[in-house]
Design a protein that fits this description.
The structure holds two protein chains of two kinds. Chain A is of the alpha/beta class. Helices cover 32% and strands 26% of the residues of chain A. In chain A, helix 13 packs across helix 14. By secondary structure, chain B is mostly helical. Chain B is built from 16 helices and no strands. In chain B, helix 1 packs across helix 2, helix 4 packs across helix 11 and helix 8 packs across helix 9. Classes of the chains: A alpha/beta, B mainly alpha.
Chain lengths: 518, 348
């Protein structure tokens, strides 16, 4: 069997920490090889070794059978290795072509020859079916297009082996299926691909083989056709993982949240939430299903006081909290796991202990008469770290140094420990691996079982279907229907999310199924 | 090499390299670097008088450094320390000269007037930033010019067309017979104690109070702070006001301690701008600011002796001083170099 890349017994240490413990990965020519592992398992480290950003302490790398020494990314480029980064390396106000030639500009009489480069970019784009306008500015094109510009950049530089680092993390479902098409096209043209991911379904859909690593160790390589998501998941986390979250029937009691005729505008004055009605009772999880951009963010920002609402009312336990200040609202019994944990959830430069104290620092025992008591804050943080399985060296470690899953666990610990009547979880599992997702779903259900209300917003249909007791479908700023998970399926939900009424979605709508929220 | 060793070595090597390159500059200009450095040393530590004057010079640098560092730690860039210092100087001299009160009331009142004037001068940029998102760098720079010329006009009006204010009354003076006699009748005054007290105050606010927690949080991440229920605008204004108060105190030290009055000025004092370098040299920590201020104050004052004692022209002296500070600011590069060497040694 011909291998284009062989990474044999790679070992990479950072001080006393072994990030890669003798990992072997062999890429065949013309295959899509998935590299699977939890956050922090060592995937990125291994790829950074291959790309020349890190020098390994042990092992060897062979490219097309020849032992090589990849001392920096330029060497990797020359060997035909290209990387499509998760966070794009693009200059926003440059065009696609300008970005592609950046650092390696073709010149003619001393000035940059854009037009010849643009022509070459256009040809490549056509050859691989990428459909990118070489003269479009990066800031004007969608995230999916920006990613294609990144792919073009590697192709332009002659890459034969492409590394995709979590390529679907920020894409819409349509863009994901287009990306899969592009990857297949690349293979058909003779390229080889390493796909870094922790999404099992993607691996099943697109890859030929999978190498699994766990806590820095290579667990093994399997043929995709001979495995299934359950086996991959247990290889990845080292134990059996349940995909279907276990939970008993809901026992809803009195109403906690009531929203009446809410209208919210975005920062440009465009109404994003339109005359929305919703209620949630104690002891139930209500899932908001919808396609990104249908008013979910604005709805949550209005409830939590981060955005003013134009009209309508929001009541918590009967108390009107419309347009109150965030602190008054949180103190009325709301906990909030924000959609963007880096923007709203954490002060990344603060220690994780300070972050856990972010909602309580101003009251005893954490402070008295304006004097803050960091000992008390850290003590509480240590409790939450232990209880919520936050993997960190301790409360003094900067929040930035924690993996996404552990950051999220710390936020959940902070919010749940305040014992709110309503817990709002916005995209709580975005970017997390199966182990962390399972943990977070269990916590949400625990909240429900202890008689609290939970509002879950998610773009993942699986998540909404699995965790919610009731699903409210949001479309164009309104709740257009409410369904029970047991009485619907992904097909119907998908149509509702696209704005079709249920009558259109299911022509023979059953009687007595009319559970509108109003 | 241990980390501690490196931490001690870095500033030492930096100062040495600065002096070395400074020596080359002096040689190239045809002056004797050995004589020059002896003059510098004598200027700083030569006798008790020099030491007293050096400490006096360090005082406003500490306060200006604290002003910049405090704003910086809370995410703001206060370039207006110079202007806040000037209004603080004037306000303290005005209160010191215009009222006749017992010393226990008069001196604190005059000091507070300086702090309040600086705070007020910084309040405006804070307010504009908080309410209208106008960048504080632009506003504070412009406020420096306004401060300079408004204060000049006030001095002229007050003195009936003259170029200096009345002298402050003895009851508002920071002058100290004791410190002065201890240092061979230098102008050393109690201001150094005020400056050191403010170092503790800055540390206390940032590290021990809920206010400091909020100020730092807002500086790092406004969105997360707002989500956590903090008032962003209030914290921005408060940060500027506290920073401006430190700057105003720096001016009060000049007015009530060193000079006892105020002259109309053709240009800036420079202390406020040097405060930026002092803060950065001190990594924006209260203790670091003392280190930065000592370096700045000593070099500035000691250098005055170089033209007299070694016949080196003022211009060359300024280049030499700038080089020393430049190399200290390059500490990061030196640290990198040292870490590399020690790693190579370990590998062998």
């Amino acid at each position: 069997m011909e291998y284009v890349i062989e990474m044999l017994n790679i070992r990479k240490e950072f001080g006393n920490f072994v990030a890669n413990d003798n990992i072997t990965l062999q890429l065949r020519k013309g295959e899509i090889h998935a590299l699977l592992g939890e956050n922090g398992a060592g995937k990125s480290t291994l790829m950074n070794v291959l790309f020349g950003l890190y020098q390994p302490e042990g092992g060897e790398i062979r490219v097309r059978g020849k032992k090589v020494d990849i001392t920096d990314p330029n060497v990797a480029n020359e060997l035909g290795i290209g990387m499509v980064h998760q966070h794009f390396m693009l200059v926003e106000n440059f065009t696609v072509t300008e970005n592609i030639i950046l650092g390696n500009e073709p010149t003619k009489n001393g000035s940059v020859n854009i037009s010849s480069a643009a022509k070459k970019v256009a040809e490549l784009s056509k050859q691989y079916g990428l459909n990118v306008d070489p003269n479009a500015k990066i800031e004007d094109i969608s995230v999916g297009m920006q990613q294609r510009a990144e792919i073009l950049k590697t192709l332009y530089r002659g890459a034969e082996i492409l590394i995709f680092d979590e390529p679907t993390a920020s894409l819409t479902p349509q863009e994901i299926s287009e990306l899969i098409g592009i990857m297949k096209k690349l293979i058909a043209e003779g390229k080889s691909i390493i796909l870094i991911t922790h999404k099992l379904q993607e691996i099943m859909d697109v890859s030929d083989r999978v190498t699994v690593i766990r806590k820095g160790k290579g667990i093994g390589t399997v043929e995709t056709s001979e495995t299934d998501p359950e086996q991959l998941a247990s290889m990845m986390v080292g134990r059996q993982v349940t995909f279907k979250t276990e939970k008993g029937p809901a026992d809803p009691k009195e109403e906690v949240l009531r929203i009446e005729g809410l209208t919210v505008e975005d920062s440009r004055g465009v109404p994003k939430v339109k005359n929305l009605n919703l209620n949630i009772r104690k002891g139930e999880i209500v899932g908001i299903a919808g396609i990104d951009g249908n008013g979910q963010s604005e709805l949550i920002e209005a409830i939590t006081g981060l955005r003013k609402s134009k009209s309508g009312k929001i009541l918590i336990n009967g108390k009107d909290i419309t347009n109150r200040r965030p602190r008054e609202i949180t103190n009325s019994g709301i906990g909030h796991i924000p959609q963007d944990r880096h923007k709203h959830g954490l002060v990344l430069d603060f220690p994780i202990g300070h972050n856990i104290g972010l909602q309580t620092y101003y009251r005893p025992p954490y402070s008295k008469g304006g004097i803050i008591n960091y000992t008390a804050i850290d003590k509480k943080a240590e409790e939450i770290i232990a209880q919520y399985d936050v993997r960190t060296q301790g409360p003094h470690e900067p929040a930035r140094a924690l993996s996404g899953g552990n950051q999220q666990k710390a936020i959940i610990g902070r919010e749940v420990e305040r014992d709110p009547d309503l817990l709002i979880a916005a995209l709580p599992t975005r970017g997390l691996d199966v182990g962390a997702i399972e943990f977070i779903h269990r916590r949400l259900i625990e909240q429900r079982d202890s008689g609290k209300a939970v509002l879950l917003v998610s773009f993942e249909l699986d998540e909404v279907m699995n965790v919610s007791d009731r699903i409210a479908v949001i479309y164009d700023g309104s709740i257009i229907d409410t369904v029970l998970p047991s009485e619907t399926d992904e097909q119907e939900l998908g149509l509702l999310m696209a704005g079709h009424s249920r009558e259109a979605a299911v022509p023979q709508a059953e009687e007595g199924d009319n559970k509108h929220v109003e | 090499m241990s980390n501690r060793m490196i931490n001690l070595l870095v500033p030492a090597i930096a100062v040495f390299l600065g002096l070395l390159v400074g020596a080359i500059v002096m040689l190239a200009s045809g002056y004797d670097p050995v004589a020059g450095y002896i003059a510098l040393w004598q200027g700083i530590f030569g006798d008790t008088y020099a030491i007293g004057e050096t400490i006096r010079q360090i005082t406003p640098y500490i306060l200006a450094g604290l002003a910049v560092a405090f704003a910086f730690r809370t995410g703001l860039f206060n370039i207006g320390v110079e202007g806040q210092l000037i209004v603080g100087w004037f306000a303290s001299v005005y209160v010191g000269a215009a009222f006749d009160l017992p010393k226990v009331i008069h001196l604190p009142l005059a000091i507070l007037a300086g702090a309040a004037a600086g705070a007020l001068w910084a309040f405006l940029p804070g307010l504009l930033k908080a309410k209208m998102k106008i960048h504080e760098v632009i506003v504070t720079i412009m406020m420096n010019y306004i401060a300079l010329h408004v204060v000049n006009a006030l001095i002229k009006t007050w003195s009936g067309g003259g170029d200096k204010t009345d002298r402050i009354l003895e009851s508002a003076s920071l002058r100290s017979e004791f410190l002065s006699s201890l240092t061979d009748y230098s102008r050393l005054h109690y201001g150094i104690l005020v400056a050191l007290l403010m170092v503790v105050v800055m540390w206390f606010i940032l590290e021990k109070t809920t206010t400091g927690f909020e100020l730092k949080a807002v500086g790092f991440n406004e969105n997360a702070s707002e989500y956590a229920g903090m008032k962003i605008g209030k914290n921005i204004i408060l940060s500027m006001v506290i920073s401006g108060a430190f700057a105003g105190l720096a001016g009060a030290m000049e007015g009530l301690g060193t000079f006892g009055n105020m002259y109309t000025r053709g240009g800036f004092t420079g202390i406020g701008f040097d405060g930026i370098a002092v803060a950065l040299l001190g990594a924006n920590t209260p203790l670091g600011v003392i280190f930065g201020a000592v370096l700045f104050g000593s070099l500035k004052y000691g250098a005055l002796n170089m033209p007299n004692a070694a016949q080196i022209p003022e211009e060359v002296v300024q280049i030499v001083i700038a080089l020393v500070i430049f190399f200290v600011a390059c500490g990061y590069a030196i640290r990198l170099f040292l870490t590399k060497i020690s790693k190579k040694k370990e590998a062998k």
